[in-house]
Every structure is written in structure tokens, then in C-alpha cells.
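Appendix B. Raw example, untouched.
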Amino acid sequence: DGAADLAIATSGPAERGCHILDPRTHEAPNTTLASFTVLTPRLTDADVLATAGYAMGDLAPSWFSVVPDVAAFAVCDDNTTWHNSEFPRHAAGIRRASRLPIARRRIPIT
């Protein structure tokens, strides 16, 4: 179903406080994003893209709307959410996999 081939990463200030800087300004992003989550086949890509998405701030939704094969989901400070067109397809696969007993979930270690 493809869900076992996905990695997920979330970035934002919730756990470690404001530790992500906008590389253009060298300051915390001026954003309404509370967190930014990305699903891709590779964990490194998911981690990099989630951090980049959060650092982009409010520009992230328009950029991730055109990135192929990357699912993106954002939570805003006002508890609204946003996702790109890839997210529903990937999320459906995760829901199917999450119903499997833990012993049947394939978790590749690379």
C-alpha cells in the first residue's frame, strides 16, 4: 500500500523553542505556522523539507503546492490547518498501515 515506504518529520518550536532561523534574515521565521510536517520516502528528505517548510513560514504552502511526491501538512497558531494535494493520498496509506498489528508493520531501518 506504500505506507511502509514513507517517512514522516515535523518541525517547529513546540519541543525545543525557537531554534529554526530563516536563512535570509538569520532570525526566527515571521510566521503563523505552529508546525510543519512532511511525508516522503526517505527520512532525511522529510526532516530537511519539514525544517525548510517551517523556516519558509507563510510562504511554505505556496511552495509545497507545486513540489511533486511530497506530502505536506501545517498547523497554524490559530489551530487551523493546511495541506497540499499530495497529503490525502499519503495520509490514507498511513491510516491503513496504522490498523495493522504492530508486529505486521514494516519499519525499515537504514
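End of appendix B.
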